[in-house]
Design brief:
The structure is a single chain. The chain has about 425 residues and is α/β, with parallel strands linked by helices. The protein is built from 17 helices and ten strands. The strands form three sheets. The chain has a six-stranded mixed beta sheet, with helices on both faces. Strands 1-2 form a two-stranded antiparallel sheet. Strands 9-10 form a two-stranded antiparallel ribbon. It is flat and about 75 Å long.
Length: about 425
Amino acid sequence: MAPLVKVDPRGHGFPLAATEYLIYASAMQIITDIESLQRYIDGLSGQPYVAIDTEFLRENTYYPKLCLVQLAGPQDEGAIIDPLAKGLDQQPLFDLLADPAIVKVFHAARQDIEIFVNQTGTVPTPLFDTQVAAMVMGFGEQIAYDALVRKLAGQNIDKTSRFTDWSRRPLSEKQLSYALSDVTHLRTVYDRMLEELERSGRTGWVGGEMDTLADLSIYSVQPEDAWKRLKARTNKPRFLAVLRELAAWRELEAQRRDLPRNRVIRDEALLEIASDPPENRDKLAAVRSLNRKIAEGPFGNGLMDAVKTALDSPKDSWPRVERSEPPAPALLPVIELLKVLLKRKCAAHGVAQKLVCPGPDIEKLAADDNADIPALKGWRREVFGNDALRLKSGGLGLAIQGQEVVEITLDPPE
């Protein structure tokens, strides 16, 4: 069998080093060294954007394990970076992510951005998320990437490689082609979106959403806030104080050991301990998923210390969470009318309802004309908020004509 060769864009081949396990195809540029990475990144200089995607695994780790990074500029054939290649310095990639002159285009960007935040401590900017833009453009609340590619690029994606173990080497040509196609299709989607957003005058609408996506705080969990992810059974301050300390300890332990949270200790166990804090190791050992050996070891020490820290803390420092009360009965018809108006307005403007005014905000609007919600600000107010207030004040009515809901201008009551 002839040795595998790595083929660069000019068609020149050379034997693969023993540590390089990818199967390469001449149509793809696979980057495993910093010199090749720097050349590719330099080639993007002056380009308006780069499409980016990642392949990663997270089933057995706390932090995502980055396995591939796919890039494509507006006109090149794209490239695949192998972060697992021995000795690869990714600094040129990080420099690209921080370049303010190049827009970084993602689809459903949050997990990709989280990976880069873990590596660099910063959010790639400026950025553009085609899934978020699709909500502004009337493609629904969370359109799948393959559906968006089909609608805007006219291409069908072969999804048979979707559940590949991307950490394995070698990867087949089919798997690599699938990975690269994600970004080559993405740039077509982006180009079409820019044209449509410009035509419809909604470029500014999308800009505000991207600013929100660039907020660093949404990609990191502070250990002291980890308890908020758990579905607590009660809002009693003592329970919440213990749960807060237990969840913070688990978060730090999961980070230290690079394990999923539930591989350290399950949510159910934390909730059980918080509901009836153990005074001794015998009681701790009786918790489901624990045993005496665990309870009497370093792991048990951590749990008992967390419980003690919570119970010894001043009571005025314990969390207090007010349970949200259901809307007053008199508001229920108002909420339903606002939902009908929202549906009509969003259909007419071709924008996702969730983006304009999600359910909890509808309830706030029903109760308060001055609610501090996005629906009463900016473009959302123009699309929905102003008419929602008119509906509440009696200046706007809803009626059925044929099979359609229509708006009727009314004289508001004195």
